[in-house]
Amino acid sequence: MSDRNLLWLRYKNGDIDALGEIFRSFFSDLYFYGLKIVPVSDMVKDVIQEMFIRLWDRRESVSEVENVKSYLIIILRRELINTVKGLNLDTFDENDINDPFTLSAEDIIIESEENEEVKARINYEIQKLTSRQREIIFLRFYNNLSFNDISIILQMNVQSVRNLLFRSLEKIRKGIGKASFQNIDIH
Questions:
Q1: Rounded to whole angstroms, how far apart are CA atoms 168 and 162?
Q2: What percent of the chain has pLDDT over 70?
Q3: Which of 63, 65, 98, 145 is the Cys-Cys partner for 149 at CB 3.0 to 4.6 Å?
């Protein structure tokens, strides 16, 4: 059993310090992911905090999880979308929720390894992808999630996730030229 799964078990057994440790371990990843869905920092922070309060309140009925990070991302994604849908904000509409992912080249490649021209070309090609394609790239390369975890988060089968990621990367490769894109590992 992994350290994170042991923490989860301790949390389920009523250890508030374990929940605090889970919060500290995943806050940055959850926050960054949340900003991709709703680009309002305070709202994302509030939803994350409320999510952890509800987790504590429901600890006895929360099920066992295989991957704590994936589980938390699923909850955060659902709660952010529900929060935005429940608000009557002029700045948000259904398109904002369905097209949340704007990725920069820095989300995928390490800045010191690539020159500015290649990053600009990659960023341009990424922005031409659909929201779902950008989200898969973000989950795979920024959060280092497995295909199985991504399939659970996006409610797709694993093969569909693999196919969509492959098509997305092929589209980027064609746009920027294959030679510039060979250093990115999709496995």
A1: 10
A2: 77
A3: 145
pLDDT digits (tens, 9 = 90+) for 165-175: 989 888 888 88
How many other C-beta atoms are found inside a 10 Å radius of the C-beta of residue 42?
7
Integer CA distances (angstroms), 90 to 36, 82, 128, in order: 19, 16, 26
pLDDT at 121: 78
Q: Determine the Cα–Cα distance for residues 27 and 72; give it in Å rounded to an integer.
A: 10
**By three-state DSSP, how is residue 182 classified?**
coil
Q: Which residue has the tokens 């950008």?
A: 134
Task: Return all residues near 113 (Cβ < 8 A) that are at least 6 apart.
Answer: 183
DSSP state of 66: S
Q: What is the DSSP string of 23-71?
A: HHHHHHHHHHHHHHH---HHHHHHHHHHHHHHHHHTTTTPPP-S-HHHH
Number of domains present in the structure of the chain: 2
CATH code at 60? 1.10.1740.10
Q: Is residue 186 included in any domain, yes or no?
A: no
pLDDT, position 66: 87
Q: Say which residue the tokens 């920092």 belong to.
A: 41
Q: Please give the backbone phi and psi of residue 75, each rounded to the nearest 5 degrees, phi first.
A: -65, -45
Q: Can you tell me the distance from the alpha carbon of 67 to that of 151, in angstroms, rounded to the nearest whole number?
A: 13
| C-alpha 99, offset from chain centre | 14
By residue range, what is the domain housing residue 24? 3-96
